[in-house]
Structures are given as structure tokens and as C-alpha cells.
Amino acid sequence: MTEREKMLSGELYDPTDKELEQLRLNARKLARKYNSTDEDDQEEQVQILRKLLPATEELPYLQAPVYFDYGCNTFFGKFSSANFNFTCLDVCEIHIGDNVMIGPNVTLATPMHPLLPEERNIRMREDGSFYNLEYAKPITIKDNCWLASNVVVCGGVTIGEGCVIGAGSVVTKDIPPYSLAVGNPCRVIRKITEKDHMPDGIEKN
User: Fold this and answer.
1) pTM surpassing 0.70?
2) Of the listed 6, 28, 78, 113, which one is catalytic?
3) Which of 196, 143, 145, 133 is nearest to 171 (CA)?
4) Residue 113 catalytic?
5) Bridge partners of 154?
């Protein structure tokens, strides 16, 4: 297996691999270019996002600045958006559904490191170059979710459809559908139900 294949399958891999270094460099150059593009230059922003997010058919609205590890490992659904300072460490795949609202300063972090220091510390090859080993776990955010400001989602987490994750939460475990969840670590407070309907929100049958 290549280091890229190991990375995407959740196995220990070497992030100093040349292919991976080039992919990260490309994503970061594109993100910097996007971040320096004015909001009224939508055609230029679309062209950049097409390269940064090649796996996404219908592009999200991303309020610059944004930060990606790879870009090509992130998949957005329709009508999704992210506010300022969206950080997407997509070492493993990140799947974001339709109509997902992401608040400012949200981080989606798939990378993981061994717990034992001797397994995660820097190592030296015979040629004198240095490397380390890490791994990653995927993240899935289902349709119709809202992640409020300063939320962190850790690798291996699935957030179910229709969830609201409160500001400042750190999500370390799966959240079931239609849950209001908050805190560090993030915990479900209650279910979201029809009782949460707002009078001027949507028409009810």
C-alpha cells in the first residue's frame, strides 16, 4: 500500500511521504489564494474551490479564511456553508451533508496520534532524515445540522441528521439524529422535536 492508501484506510502512515507533502502544499496554496480573493469576485472563488474541493459537485459557501490539509478528502452536500476560520484537517475523509451550517472557528480534525510517546515521537531514517507515524479516523456530518461557533469535531465521529451542536463544544463521540448537544466533552441535552417550531419559521400542515 502507498502511504496515501494507508492514510485513507486509517492505518499508521508516514506524513512526510512526497505525494502527501505535495497534496498538502497544493491545498494550502489554493486556500491562501481563496483567502486573498475578494468576496465580489465570485467567479475566481468558484474556480479556486473547484480545484481545492474536486470531490464536491455543488460547492458550499465558505467565508474566508479557510484552511484545509488536503481538500480532496472533503465532500460537501448541497446548500452547505461555513463561516470565518473553518479548519478542515481532512487526513481521512470528511463527509458533510446537505444544508449543513458551520459557524465561525469550527475545526473538523481527523488526525490521530499514538498514545505511547515512543510510538508518536520523531524518528530518524538511516539517511539521517526525520519522520513520524500518525493515523486518522473519518468524520461524517449528516444532513440539516448546525454546528455553532468554536465547535471541534474529533476523528471517528458521526453527527446524525438534524443535530444542533452548541457553541464551544468538543465532539468526541457519535451524536444521534435530531439531538441538541453541548459541552466539553459534548453530550446530548435533549431531542429536537416539533415543540421547537418557531411561529414565523416554516408553514405547518
Assistant:
1) yes
2) 113
3) 145
4) yes
5) 109
